[in-house]
Amino acid sequence: MLRVGLTGGLGSGKSTAASLFAALGAHILSADEIARLLMQPGEAVFDAIVASFGPGILLSDGTLNRPALAKLAFSGGRVEELNSIVHPATIDRQTVLCDAIFARDPHAIVIVESALIFETKFGGEDGWRRRFDKLILITAPEELRIARFIARTAAGRQLPDTEHAALEAEAHRRIAQQIPDEQKASLCDYVLTNKGALTELEWQVDQLWPLLLVAAQNSTNP
Fold first, then answer.
1. Across the strands, what pairs with 4?
2. Domain for residue 71, yes or no?
3. Binding of ATP: at which residues (predicted)?
4. For residue 80, which of 121, 48, 42, 117 has the smallest C-alpha distance?
């Protein structure tokens, strides 16, 4: 078994790298997807968010208005308040899902895709050291990361200048709240660059995969 953390800043291409590892046989757990599920009505995390931020963050159908919640948390200086609700539950769910996978396949490689492996203050001091056997960082130039964020948000729409500028400012703000890649790289086992064609990232993933297979095999040997 091998527990791998896959991290990187906004627009670095974590999800793309995760999909490439999945094609090779890795089990992928997305921290964002887990958190999204935990924030659905009926979940304890959902109830805690509403209790903390108020019913004004709900849509007419009773689900969370995620853009409104994000604006309230980030622009209103309440990010840590939200994180204190979401992060511990997300980390706990990751552990449960990992254990279930390893129970079925002791040689499995589970890759947790998360932007905030180092940034989160939850899971104990240096909790990531206990949660992961290997860490992979995906990097890309900041201007490219910002362009990817804007393009992803626009989803094919032609943005007016004001909205484009607002998204660019939002990207800068989010990047500023994350630990710089240079600092993360010193804590990671592997660093992959995603600044060119998809085939370049794919080649790097293909080169790394055999090393992860060996590490997974060795971790299950007596």
1. 111, 134
2. no
3. 11-16
4. 121
Q: What is the pTM of this model?
A: 0.89
Is 14 marked within a binding site? yes
Query: Binding site annotation covers 9?
Result: no
Q: Tell which residue, 221, 220, 194, has the closest CA to residue 108.
A: 220
Give which of 151, 191, 154, 167 is closest to 17, Cα–Cα: 191
12 known member of a binding site:
yes
Q: Is 121 helix (H, G, I), strand (E, B) or coil?
A: coil
Q: Is 54 labelled as part of a ligand binding site?
A: no
| Residue 19 assigned as binding residue | no
- Structural domain range at position 130: 2-30+96-220
Q: How many domains does the chain have?
A: 1
11: annotated binding-site residue? yes
CATH code of the domain covering residue 106: 3.40.50.300
Q: Is 136 a member of any domain?
A: yes
